[in-house]
Automatic annotation (TrEMBL), chain A:
Keywords: ATP-binding, Cell membrane, Membrane, Nucleotide-binding, Transport
InterPro entries: AAA+_ATPase, ABC_Ni/Peptide_Import, ABC_transporter-like_ATP-bd, ABC_transporter-like_CS, Oligopep_ABC_C, P-loop_NTPase
Sequence ranges assigned to domain ABC transporter in this UniProt record: 4-254
GO biological process terms held by the UniProt record: peptide transport
NCBIfam families associated with the record: oligo_HPY
Predominant cellular place of this UniProt entry's protein: membrane
Family: Belongs to the ABC transporter superfamily.
Protein topology in the membrane: Peripheral membrane protein
Any one of the GO CC terms: plasma membrane
Protein name: ABC transporter ATP-binding protein
Entry-linked Pfam families: ABC_tran, oligo_HPY
Statement: the UniProt record of this protein carries the keyword Membrane: yes
UniProtKB/TrEMBL annotation, chain B:
Any single GO CC term annotated in Swiss-Prot or TrEMBL for this entry: plasma membrane
ABC transmembrane type-1 domain location: 95-300
Lineage of the organism: Bacteria, Bacillati, Actinomycetota, Actinomycetes, Streptosporangiales
Domain of life: Bacteria
Name the UniProt record assigns to this protein: ABC transporter permease
InterPro entries given in the database record: BPD_transp_1_N, MetI-like, MetI-like_sf
Organism: Planotetraspora mira
GO terms, molecular function: dipeptide transmembrane transporter activity
UniProt membrane topology term: Multi-pass membrane protein
Length: 330, 319
């Protein structure tokens, strides 16, 4: 049993245009102290998959089936009051938008202390002292000064560090980071990633890192799940994934990296590769390979049935009838 | 913060001075000659001229203005041209009545409007929301005078629960005072409550879908803290702004309501003074209204700054 086990997770939303299939039959697991990357383009279901764990999806329109177990405890059916004990304490979240995720009307000290007082039963003063320590932990200078400040007085990178301080305040088992560096400058990104790595090393926190940036994946993740159109396309330890990508979609993503374009051409340069075509509409869920229309190695059998995840190595799975031959370089 | 308040107060004084000039000129631009009204239809030209001289109406306008300002600041608002009573005395008698009416109406409006707005936003698209928005629409579209007449018809004439009109000072008969104030308060407060309800609802709806509310939920906070602390605090700025802006409507609503319920307040005084071209009273009434407006807006600005750290702190750093 892993720390977190997601089995056959299917999530849909009732919208005015019909039922949107956001996540389909996704299964994944997370070990203690592991950094797992969920990657894919916008709308591939990576955020919905992760937000299903703390149940932060809109309750009235979300249709969720499957199982999510934290330490063997089923979260999908946990009553809401107990679920509130899990949120912020055992599973916490760092959101994508540092500029708007903090409440503009309260000091950052209050917003950090709030979660401590909720879950750790700390007094006002003790929570405040702990908030200072946490700001120090995430690398904010002059923390005793900073806790009295309001979010608008801090830069984006600082705010993201405050968000991380809130998320790790109660030493969660699982930390979900949703594109934590996307809104930040490149120089700030590295610092924030260091904070995550440091937290994992010091507290043993398992991290689900949602990102579309394969550079971030290579930098920090232990294992990666590549998602496409609501399903897992490929799943492998990061080193193996970059050395031997099997799914044509993964291969396409890697060819689309600027670094790949620079390295490959004879003169050192060539046009950046792209994946032709469009992501299929999430309103339909046909029984064929969702990537078929855009796939360079697609054949007739891809239309006849949907490929399921097949094991190609000890921890390497891919959902493709015609995976790239090993040795094919991205 | 102190600097912010001082700056606001300075601006308020300037607005008041400009207001006093406009009031002074506006009253003089009204058609009709007050000396003629006072002297009566068949008065001799000599009597009219004497009255003009007595009230200083024959002097140049700037001289009249400076004299007016000097007298006003020393608390002398002149005498009513109708009954020769000092205007200050009349105001002292009428103003508390209207203050009580508007304060009670505001209390009702804020309590009902803000609570209903929060409930409607939280229960969006469900029965409670439809009931609240339905009443809100009714409150906005029904005019005071009609609602007042309906209320009198129902509660005073048919049910005989409450007196239809009149006024007793609170200090003389508290129960009688509140009995008589209940209907006017509800009639005046209803429209105001509707405006506040709609504004609170839309402010709460946008706050509830904000990222920081999602953050609050991700901390495992109970819904009452998510709604009552995180969302409400950010909606209050809107509510306070609307409160200040709508005060004008409340004052004009008080004029109408006082006419319907025959309450001897400020509104009735205003109407009577305009009909008789009672310059000193008109000037004083408008001046009090302008002052009330300026003071309320000053208070709104200060409360707003308290609620919104971005305003409060920018005021400090630029000072």
């Amino acid at each position: 049993m892993s720390l977190l086990d997601i089995t056959d997770l299917t999530v849909g939303f009732d919208t005015e245009d019909g039922h949107v299939h956001a996540v389909k039959e996704v299964s994944l697991s997370l070990e203690e102290g592991e950094i797992l990357a969920l990657c894919g383009e916008s709308g591939c279901g990576k955020t919905v998959t992760a937000m299903s764990v703390p149940r932060l999806l809109p309750p009235r329109t979300t249709r969720l089936t499957g199982s999510i177990r934290l330490d063997g405890r089923e979260l999908t059916t946990l009553p809401e009051p107990q679920m509130r004990q899990v949120r912020g304490k055992e599973v916490s979240v760092v959101f994508q938008e540092p500029m708007t995720s903090l409440n503009p009307s309260f000091t950052v000290g209050f917003q950090i202390a709030e979660v401590l007082r909720r879950h750790e039963n700390l007094s006002r003063g003790a929570a405040r002292r702990r908030a200072v320590e946490l700001l120090e932990l995430v690398g904010i200078p002059a923390p005793a000064q900073r806790i009295k400040e309001y979010p608008h007085q801090l830069s984006g990178g600082m705010r993201q560090r405050v968000m991380i301080a809130i998320a790790v305040a109660c030493s969660p088992r699982v930390l979900i980071a949703d594109e934590p560096t996307t809104a930040l400058d490149v120089t700030i990104q590295a610092g924030v990633l260091d904070v995550f790595r440091d937290l994992r090393d010091r507290l043993g926190t398992a991290i689900i890192l949602i990102t579309h940036d394969l550079g971030v994946v290579a930098d920090i993740a232990d294992r990666a799940v590549i998602m496409y159109a609501g399903r897992a396309a490929e799943q492998a330890p990061v080193e193996e994934l970059f050395a031997r990508p099997l799914h044509p979609y993964t291969l396409g993503l890697m060819k689309a990296l600027p670094a790949a374009a620079v390295a490959a051409g004879p003169g050192g340069r060539r046009r950046l590769a792209e994946i032709p075509g469009m992501v299929p509409s999430p309103l339909a869920d046909p029984a064929e390979c969702a990537f078929h229309a855009r796939c360079p190695s697609g054949q007739d059998d891809c239309l006849a049935a949907r490929p399921s995840l097949v094991r190609h190595g000890p921890a390497h799975l891919a959902a493709c009838f015609h995976p790239a031959r090993s040795g094919e370089q991205p | 913060m102190t600097w912010f308040i001082l700056r606001r107060c300075g601006a308020a004084v300037i607005v008041l001075l400009l207001g006093s000039v406009l009031i002074f000129l506006g009253v003089r631009a009204l058609p009709g000659d007050p000396a003629l009204v006072m002297a009566g239809e068949d008065a001799s030209p000599a009597l009219v001229a004497a009255i003009r001289e007595e009230y200083g109406l024959d002097r140049p306008l700037p001289v009249q203005y400076v004299e007016y300002l000097r007298q006003t600041l020393s608390g002398n608002l002149g005498r009513s041209t109708q009954d020769q009573l000092p205007v200050a005395t009349i105001l002292a008698e009428r103003l508390p009545v209207t203050l009580e009416l508007t304060a009670l109406a505001m209390l009702v409006a804020v309590t009902v409007g803000v609570l209903a707005g929060i409930v409607a936003a939280v229960r969006r698209g469900r029965a409670a929301d439809y009931v609240a928005t339905g009443f809100g629409l009714a409150g906005l579209s029904i005019p005071h005078f009609w609602l007042g007449l309906l209320a009198i018809l129902l509660f005073s004439v048919t049910l005989r629960w409450l007196p239809a009109s009149g006024y007793v000072p609170f200090t003389e008969d508290p129960v009688g005072n509140l009995q008589r104030m209940l209907l006017p308060t509800l009639v005046l407060g209803m429209g105001f409550a509707a405006v506040l309800m709609r504004q609170t609802r839309s402010a709460m709806l946008s706050a509830l879908s904000a990222d920081y509310v999602r953050t609050a939920r991700s901390k495992g906070l109970p819904e009452r803290a998510v709604v009552g602390v995180h969302a409400l605090r950010n909606s209050l700025t809107t509510v306070v702004t609307v409160l200040g802006l709508q005060l004008g409507a409340l004052i004009s609503g008080a004029v109408v309501t006082e006419q319907i319920f025959v309450i001897p307040g400020f509104g009735k005084l205003t109407v009577d003074a305009v009909l008789t071209r009672n310059y000193p009273v008109i000037q004083a009434v408008v001046l009090v209204t302008v002052t009330a407006y300026v003071v309320i807006n000053l208070l709104v600005d200060i409360v707003y700054a308290f609620l919104n750290p971005r305003i409060r702190l920018s005021g400090a750093s630029h000072g």
